[in-house]
Predict the 3D structure of the following.
Amino acid sequence: MVKAEELKSLAGEHGTPLFVVDHEALRRNYAKFRRLFPRVQAYYAVKANPEPEIVKTLYDMGASFDVASMAEFKLVHENIKGLGAKARQDFIWDKIIYANPVKDKATLEYLDRYKPLVTYDNVEEVKKTKKYAPHAGLALRVRVPNTGSMVELSSKFGAAPGEAVDLIEEAHKAGLVVEGLSFHVGSQCTNFENYVQALSIASAIMDEASSRGFAMKLLDIGGGFPARYDNGVRPLEELARVVNSTIKRLFPEDIEILAEPGRAIVASAGTLVAEVIGKAYRDGRRCYYLNDGIYGTYSGIFFDHCQYRVKAFKRGAREISAVFGPTCDALDVVSQTESLPDLAVGDLVYSENIGAYSRASATSFNGFPPAKVVHVNL
Ligand SMILES: *Cc1c(COP(=O)(O)O)cnc(C)c1O
């Protein structure tokens, strides 16, 4: 965690709103993930925070990448190119998975030259892939329970387990190779049972596929690894015990296991510093207006269903206050119930654990540009 004094001095130097990325925290989070899941290669989900510096730091740590758009693919590929003269063609599956089950024609045509590993979950995608990216390898995305996850994904993606083997067969008939299975238990998954169920479903599909002549070699257990926004979230160590023992029980040693953690790598590496630009009293309650809000770094409140705490550097008796963003939209509410001391216009506040799905989904709505980004401990 970047210390309060440093946050204040960075804000003094760069202005606010300021989005501070701590690369020491990134390295720590990545190393912890590898230590807790020794059998699993981590493909960082770039959409959580696509800063090129983050990609570089994680690449140097040995990370691979989950990309889900042509721009994200290029971003990662550029950085791999810039970082050594490896034979990239053999190397690419080890470093990049294109994990968006639905791709447009242009993306498939572009990707094909790299013989990428891509996910799919429906028969239209098989047809498109055969036509526009015949050199791609496939991983079938399977629908699994997302019960209790903060962000639910199972209503949008994933083949029903009952149709999985038929979809694998469809791909083979089209001359494509299905290398393995993937799933996503939902983001910020605090119900660890989701992983157990997903692994059981995947194991059953692999067995059935194998008995029909389609042996697979990889399993992608997706993202969902929770960040500790508060102490109610059980530690990653506990999830690791559950996941590792279930993998050991259900999958042979020669099945390659990958995961796509996003939030678990970047959430705690990001801190926002914002400034109080206005103050009012409404119905006896203090209301603060910040120069960042729900259309900016706090966009995760809306898109990610995540609530961030707003903290003051200043001490003093606290009162429940409202915190608003700078735009003219009434939706632009950061918090209705923040416990804050008596702040003045010009005072700084900060929010921790805001590294994932925050600035990544910020807009320039109403003419307020996204926060400036500064990298520390690079
Ligand atoms: C968003 C996403 C991830 C990252 O999920 P987290 O919950 O942030 O770990 C991984 N895989 C896929 C396919 C995704 O869409």
User: Anything to note?
Assistant: The chain has two domains: 4-18+268-376, 24-266.
